[in-house]
Write a structure and sequence with these properties.
Elements lengths: L8 E2 L4 E5 L4 E6 L1 H7 L2 E5 L6 E2 L4 E7 L3 E5 L4 E6 L2 H4 L2 H5 L7 E5 L11 H8 L2
Antiparallel strand pairs: 1-2, 2-3, 3-9, 4-6, 5-8, 6-7, 8-9
Length: 127
């Protein structure tokens, strides 16, 4: 497993989140999650313009082994999805921290404070 980037926040449901300019939160799945899932074959993305709430299921990743729901780390509106993953979901397997899934315009970016830092996330995945 790769080292966890320190500039990200992590959810217990294995999403990572990165706060960017203008309160936009970029979301992906962790390297641990993609390793557990195996080879990804399909990603069901949320719709651009869709409103999401903290901890609401908003996307699905499917692998050769199983399907797994993804949850929003913040309340807000989906601003963008990573279209490249429609034809190449395996990009997540190649680099889970470069292959983001979607971006949310956060209503309140401080909601990210409820997520874990890299050290805290490491402790739960090694437990």
């Amino acid at each position: 497993m790769s080292d966890l980037p320190d500039n990200l926040k992590y959810a217990t449901s294995h999403e990572w989140a990165k706060l960017e300019n203008d309160d936009v939160v970029r979301v992906g799945i962790t390297d641990f999650a993609q390793e557990e899932l195996g080879d990804l074959v399909f990603i069901e993305m949320p719709e651009v313009g869709q409103r999401v709430r903290v901890a609401e299921q908003c996307a699905v990743v499917e692998s050769v082994k199983t399907a797994s729901d993804l949850y929003s780390p913040v309340n807000g509106e989906i601003m963008e999805v990573n279209e490249a993953l429609a034809d190449a979901p395996e990009l997540v397997n190649e680099d889970a921290y470069a292959a983001w899934l979607f971006c949310i315009k956060a209503d309140d970016p401080s909601e990210l404070d409820q997520l874990m830092n890299a050290e805290e996330y490491t402790s739960i995945i090694k437990a």
